[in-house]
Amino acid sequence: MIDIIKKQWFVILIALIFIGFSIFCIYDTNKGKLPGKSVDGKDVVVSLEKENITADELYDEMYKTYGDSVLMNQFNNAVIDEAVKTTDELKETAKQIRTNVETNAQNYASSYQMSSEEYITTMLKQQGYEYEQLDDFCLLAAKMQKMQNDYIDKNFDSLFDDYYKEKQPRTVSHILIKVADVNNPTEEEQKQIDAVNKELKEGKSFEEVAKKYSADGSAENGGSLGLMDKDTQYVESFKKAALGLKSNETSEWVKESNENYSGWHLIKAGKTTKEEIKEEINKNKDLKDQLYYNIANYHTDITNKMIKEAMENLDIKYSSDDIKKMIDESLNSEN
Fold it and tell me: Which of 14, 115, 183, 324 has a CA that sits 20 to 30 A from residue 245's CA?
């Protein structure tokens, strides 16, 4: 069965932050693994026959590798915080983000034998925050979402056109009938397949039939899976069929069997043209958020561009020419 994760883009952003800083969690959880062992007052992380690696040495090496990235994160955070005015609406969004941060922390923390609070604390420290500042961090994430959405709004036509040509976005719905052996449906399974075919042929809407028969969690939404494109993590058989459809076309039954589920999909394309998708996102906020997240993923330089644009209206001073050069080079890089 297709696993649909219906989340705002910033929820995924938070998850990526947790994943991205896993190496720092490894450092924090391992630096005390040799209790009682120290050299010159420094905790030993790894002890070999002729050499010890201390926590300070490990941290210094990590800083050489990741120090510039951490500085850029903090610089970007400061620009976003200064450039975007705090509003009541953003405060409400920040509350939603905090809930999602805490949920993600519970999922990831167990992998490192930490409590969710310890995990959040570790992540926040790499962003220059303490645990007590979690609300501030979540407000920053809300501001980042707004800044990014505002930038895409302003440059939508050019950003969307390039993304559309490459990734073939479209809205899709499906009906899933679970089949133990996709090549030999049981009598009961075949009855369900035949019933779907019959009711669609009689003129019942795809949405109505999906609600009645589909075994997927999307059934309650009439089988709607929202927006997908070439990068969406669906099984290849489903993706290939869905990307081959034009607006309002319905596929033949697609058979799929893997370690997660076994069944037959009937797929319907909704909006596939640029004009249709543009019109649809003006009526559906969730779809718009999903599209904007995809556009931002496609245009990997979008963060640098919006930060540089925001900097034009801020009075920024640097402690040294080297710092200014590093920041300029980072913002002008293609990655």
Answer: 183
